[in-house]
Recover the amino acids of this structure.
């Protein structure tokens, strides 16, 4: 992942774009890209989405997610593994298995 | 990153959740988490967001992004590096340096 | 508002689009348009957004919001006024005045 | 609609919240609420969403949409009817009937 983040930062710095990359606008950008990804599935069944569009937009989502993690000094692996641990308590297997319910409705 | 994806899939499979994880609903979930991350900055200056909330929600964003990449058989590093290459053409340094303009307004 | 909803339904029915307009995809569309509106402000100060883009995208947001209200048989005025009443309890003036805090942090 | 907007502004002004309601943060709020509405449908078929949640979140979407229209001095009916007209050109009945394709793919 460091290779990805370094490539993203090099691209950003070549264009002198760090001035725009405060965490609020990075989150805005991430949300916008997540919606562009969603558009691949609009009016369609999951299996009918254009795979090229999914690939393109998911790449954009990851780009801003990695930049945001870097801007906020967060290690991606650490925060995801920590979240999985917390989710193990919110969604115990005995209650959550086979259920799509949110934790406060289990 | 494989370690992250394996941990996410183990958590999912322990709970028999793969039945819900079609790409359309995964994109929905990703978009919803991106908005929860955005909420950390609502009504606030970038520097005033709660760092714990950013960490929590960014972890959720990455979780669904990795699950979606896996569901669509995409390699995260490959697709991001490929997108950076395409962006080098859309945003040549000579035109894009120091500018926040979208590529079709350069 | 009935005039707006009638015009939207006429446009939809001329194109035989009701088949696509289930509430889930209408909500997807609404979310996508809300993000396109957000893009008007990306990397910018609030006052620097393009007013034409705001007008265009906000019109799209309202279009899908009205179609969704109609699809779910909801009266827009009733639901908004009811929500304001509920919010008066969640955000009593004595606690909420001048504060951007969410109700569970008051 | 004026009755709705007046009620929203009265609620806002009683709490001295206009200081937070710049168009960028209003768009953020609108996008966040659109995602909360989307959550009603997550992992579910369209017909299985909780109608109370749809009502609640759609009311929030409309609240911020109306506040944004007012902040940007836009007449909701005018902008939606104007957008329908533009869409009649982007989506001529002869090409768009029965099709979910985006205008640039017709």
């Amino acid at each position: 992942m460091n290779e990805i983040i370094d490539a993203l930062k090099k691209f950003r710095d070549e264009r002198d774009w760090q001035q725009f990359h405060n965490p609020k606008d990075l989150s805005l950008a991430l949300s916008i890209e997540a919606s562009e990804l969603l558009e691949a599935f609009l009016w369609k069944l999951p299996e009918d989405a254009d795979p090229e569009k999914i690939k393109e937009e998911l790449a954009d989502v990851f780009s801003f997610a990695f930049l945001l993690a870097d801007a906020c000094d967060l290690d991606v692996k650490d925060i995801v593994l920590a979240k999985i641990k917390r989710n193990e308590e919110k969604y115990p297997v005995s209650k959550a298995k086979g259920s799509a319910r949110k934790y406060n409705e289990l």
